[in-house]
Design goal:
The complex is a heterodimer of chains A (270) and B (281).
Chain A (H helix, E strand, L loop, with lengths): L15 H4 L2 H15 L5 H17 L4 H24 L5 E5 L2 E4 H27 L2 H12 L9 H31 L9 H32 L18 H23 L5
Antiparallel strand pairs in A: 1-2
Chain B lengths: L3 E8 L14 E8 L4 E6 L5 H8 L7 E6 L2 E2 L6 H7 E4 L12 H12 L3 H14 L15 H13 L5 E5 L7 H18 L2 E6 L2 H4 L4 E6 L2 E6 L1 H6 L1 H6 L6 H11 L11 H12 L1
Parallel strand pairs in B: 3-8, 3-9, 6-7, 7-8
Antiparallel strand pairs in B: 1-2, 1-4, 4-5, 9-10
Helix pairs in contact in B: 3-4, 3-5, 4-5, 5-6
The chains are: A mainly alpha (270), B alpha/beta (281).
Chain lengths: 270, 281
């Protein structure tokens, strides 16, 4: 049961997006998320939506996985767009009791829906095409300047990568403990919610104990391998920005420029 | 001075919870290990063999007595990392000593800590993985490997630091027979071909037979030491301390007890067959 859990949502591949520098991907995603919320008319919204579609298409990840990630936020999208619809200003085109729907309200609903969908698709695109190790590595490298204000960048990145490393190990352990407790007659699949939560206690306690023991041994093993923090440490893989990354930066810059131009020269729809 | 020189060390873990003094885990042990030797350290659980292992790379420091690695005192804090670089320690549970989610990144962890240049790390990692026959698995996730494979990756992680000696604390205790054979043949290869000094801590007698010298410990002291043949001929002594001897030796010992004339104790099945042939002639 626990064994099927795939860690993160990484799909190995060799697509254009896969080959981008993970640092570039993170920076671009942040810039892109900002620009999504700076679209004020339909043309700029279309530019952003098209660009998202382009990224999704070139990520080489089957569309059904994107749909799956959208399914999770489906309810949120519906609720926010409906609420937005009723908060429009201007003359109502439809009125029933206290419910007033205006053109402005409909516009708002459309914008919110498209923005959230683009946001989810773009973020999924990052997690689908970048392995967790690459992600933590990129975060460490990007946050390096924070070292100057004594922010423990290396330690945090090390903790993240160790946590990722131990997720499958601890899942396997949970599985084993569950089976062991079942063999002793533990009942975990029946009873009300309260009883089920209570039934988890005999699983969590041994799991915590073993996690601490593992942590202790891991620390010993790391010391044996001369680990002494981030100072003086080198990395085997040095990542460099390539032509492809320059291309991605240019494309995103063009999209941002386009959105800004649309906002300046076209009337806002909101 | 020998490569590793342990001089009359005593060590006890911190006091018990009730405040009483803990008894010494190591009680006056002296041991000399030459470069290129394959040493097996035998004994019951709690006889102090793991404690000795941790003294060899300055993870633990003796309460009294001295440990010298290649002439350096382990108590000298400035030398701690030099010593850990020279003497690599592999622990029992392979799961708990792999730090990265990809095999080659894990092997690179040691040299990365030592500040080796990236291109050189690459070479070291490839060589270390080839030495333990795990090169084709370099892109795999460790949790998908078998126990023996994981333990070999852990050994590669130590080899990538280019140590002169490798100490293994019961590396085969959690492995199935296949995994045990994989790890042992890797160790033998490293010792015979690369001249690596190997200290193998184990409680399997048939593993100890492969070593150049066997050290038997009991209650924090060295009970006896010598070549496998010398040690396992002392069947009475080992039996008195509830230690086993290899099956073949045990058989010969029992036959001898029945009045058969056996002068050379066999250590493995082959020798045993030969001995029986001679006796039956």
């Amino acid at each position: 049961m626990v064994r099927d859990v795939t860690l993160g949502q990484y799909f190995p591949g060799k697509s254009l997006i896969h080959r981008l520098d993970p640092r570039a991907k993170i920076i671009l995603l942040i810039a892109y998320l900002v620009i999504i919320f700076c679209t004020f008319n339909y043309l700029s919204l279309a530019v952003v939506a098209l660009f998202t579609a382009f990224c999704v298409a070139f990520s080489g990840v089957p569309a059904k996985f994107y749909l799956k990630s959208l399914k999770v936020i489906f309810v949120i999208v519906i609720i926010t767009s409906v609420i937005n619809m009723f908060y429009g200003t201007g003359d109502p085109i439809f009125e029933w009791g206290i419910i007033k729907i205006t053109v402005n309200g409909i516009n708002r609903a459309v914008f919110v829906t498209v923005r959230i969908i683009c946001l989810i698709l773009a973020s999924s695109c990052l997690t689908f095409t970048t392995s967790p190790t690459d992600l933590t590595d990129a975060i460490e490298r990007l946050m390096k300047p924070l070292n100057k204000i004594h922010f423990p960048v290396h330690e945090i990145a090390m903790m993240m990568s160790l946590a990722l490393r131990f997720v499958p190990t601890l899942l396997e352990e949970t599985d084993k403990i569950m089976q062991a407790q079942k063999a002793r007659g533990a009942d975990m699949d029946s009873g009300n919610l309260f009883q089920r939560i209570k039934a988890l206690v005999p699983i969590l306690i041994p799991l915590f104990v073993s996690a601490f023991r593992r942590a202790y041994e891991l620390a010993t093993a790391m010391e044996c391998r001369c680990y002494r923090g981030g100072v003086g440490r080198t990395r085997m893989k040095s990542i460099h920005m390539k032509k492809l990354d320059a291309f991605a930066f240019t494309a995103t810059a063009l999209v941002i420029g386009g959105v800004v131009l649309c906002n300046i020269f076209l009337p806002a729809a909101l | 001075m020998n490569f590793i020189s342990v001089q009359n060390i005593f060590f006890s873990y911190s006091n018990n919870e009730d405040g009483s003094l803990a008894k010494n885990a190591v009680n006056g042990v002296s041991l000399e290990i030459k470069k290129g030797e394959f040493i097996a350290l035998l004994g019951h659980n709690g006889c102090g063999k793991s404690t000795i292992a941790k003294h060899l790379n300055a993870m633990l420091l003796p309460d009294s007595g001295k440990v010298y690695i290649d002439g350096d005192d382990t108590c000298d804090e400035e030398k701690t990392y030099d010593i850990r670089k020279k003497v690599g320690l592999v622990l029992q549970n392979p799961d708990n000593q792999l730090v990265a989610s990809i095999v080659e990144e894990d092997v690179a962890f040691g040299p990365e800590n030592l500040g080796v240049e990236p291109e050189k790390i690459r070479i070291r990692v490839d060589n270390a993985l080839k030495a333990v026959d795990m090169y084709e698995y370099r892109k795999h996730a460790p949790f998908k490997l078998s126990g023996g494979q994981k333990q070999r990756v852990a050994i590669a992680g130590i080899l990538a630091m280019q140590p002169e000696c490798i100490v293994l604390d019961e590396p085969t205790a959690m492995l199935d027979p296949n995994g045990r054979n994989e790890v042992l043949s890797t160790l033998l290869k490293l010792n015979k071909q690369n001249g690596m000094t190997v200290v193998l801590i184990t409680h399997y007698m048939d593993e100890a037979v492969l070593a150049d010298r066997v050290v038997v410990m009991d209650k924090g002291k060295i009970l006896t030491l010598g070549t496998p043949r010398e040690v396992f001929s002392q069947v009475e002594l080992l039996k008195k301390h509830r230690l086993d001897v290899p099956q073949a030796t045990e058989l010969a010992y029992k036959l001898k007890g029945c009045g058969l004339n056996i002068d050379k104790m066999p250590l493995n099945e082959e020798e045993c067959v030969k001995m029986l042939e001679e006796v039956l002639k």
